[in-house]
């Protein structure tokens, strides 16, 4: 499949697995899984195209298991990904647009429309994420101090670190 078609299909998959499954007549189970064949039929695309997106997606956004598919994180619909609390590395990173850094440093990171704040272990990944929203900026999260203060971290199947929020006292600029 051509790259632009992969991107287009991945965006459709993301929309319907993370945000709006009802638009195509699907109801995920509490963990976010839907039947793969029903998903393929609802999207009206070949099954092998969906599986190719899952396989080739560099961010590993999707999981396929036991004839089912789901997004690994980033939902705005209510799901319980059943991720265990995990000890984070001492430092994590968050990519954002440079224009919102002052507000974030003042108020902290909030999940906005999602269920959790997304963090990464790599500066380059955070910078890429921030670049989707404007001129990128990377914030440093003192994850060790957060955990010591009682904040719970989880890590998704594709390595994205999730936390409910990051108060401003645990943030600094890179």
UniProtKB/TrEMBL annotation:
Top enzyme category: transferase
Gene Ontology biological process terms from the UniProt entry: tRNA splicing, via endonucleolytic cleavage and ligation
Molecular function as annotated in GO: NAD+ poly-ADP-ribosyltransferase activity; tRNA 2'-phosphotransferase activity
Keywords of the record: NAD, Transferase
Top-rank taxon, per record: Bacteria
Entry EC no(s): 2.7.1.-
One Pfam family in the UniProt entry: PTS_2-RNA
Matches recorded under PANTHER family: PUTATIVE PHOSPHOTRANSFERASE, TRNA 2'-PHOSPHOTRANSFERASE 1
Primary role: Removes the 2'-phosphate from RNA via an intermediate in which the phosphate is ADP-ribosylated by NAD followed by a presumed transesterification to release the RNA and generate ADP-ribose 1''-2''-cyclic phosphate (APPR>P). May function as an ADP-ribosylase.
Family: Belongs to the KptA/TPT1 family.
Entries under HAMAP family matching the protein: KptA
Name by which UniProt lists this protein: Probable RNA 2'-phosphotransferase
């Amino acid at each position: 499949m051509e790259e632009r078609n992969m991107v287009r299909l991945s965006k459709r998959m993301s929309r319907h697995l993370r945000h709006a499954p009802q638009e195509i007549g699907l109801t995920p189970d509490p963990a976010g899984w839907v039947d793969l064949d029903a998903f393929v039929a609802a999207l009206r695309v070949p099954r092998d195209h969906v599986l190719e997106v899952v396989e080739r997606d560099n961010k590993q956004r999707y999981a396929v298991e036991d004839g089912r598919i789901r997004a690994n994180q980033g939902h705005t619909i209510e799901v319980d990904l059943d991720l265990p609390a995990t000890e984070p590395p001492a430092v994590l990173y968050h990519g954002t647009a440079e224009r919102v850094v002052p507000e974030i440093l003042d108020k902290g990171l909030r999940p906005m429309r999602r269920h959790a704040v997304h963090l990464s272990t790599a500066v380059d990944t955070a910078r890429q994420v921030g670049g989707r929203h404007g001129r990128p900026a990377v914030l440093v999260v003192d994850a060790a101090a957060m955990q010591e203060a009682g904040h719970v971290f989880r890590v998704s199947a594709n390595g994205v670190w999730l936390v409910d929020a990051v108060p401003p006292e645990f943030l600094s600029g890179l």
